[in-house]
Amino acid sequence: MTRLLLAGALLLGLLAAGGSALAHHGWAWTTGGNIEVTGVIKTVRLGNPHGVLELTVEDETWTVEVGQPWRNERAGIKEGDLAPGVEIRVIGEPAADPSTRRVKAERLFIDGREHALYPERD
Fold this sequence. Notes:
The protein is an alpha+beta fold and 122 residues long.
């Protein structure tokens, strides 16, 4: 009986942890509509599971989720394109909670060049 209770508790713990990971990744946390944000890159963290930029936009800091390394490369983003001090325009889906100032990028514009991270999305 003790083993059964322990196994059940472990399963519930794994499900709870997995649910929070799913809530963050994917598109569930976004509004489903697009916005446009233009700003200057403040910090960059590229890598898996996806890259994250902090932009300075009119005295506010916005968090921008970009693609995984392979997605960024497929979109034509080269090393050094996403660097502190670079101005970019982002089109993407904002967080459902507007106070978080967070957007998942679908398209980036750097020096007038479009980089479609998710060309299948509108």
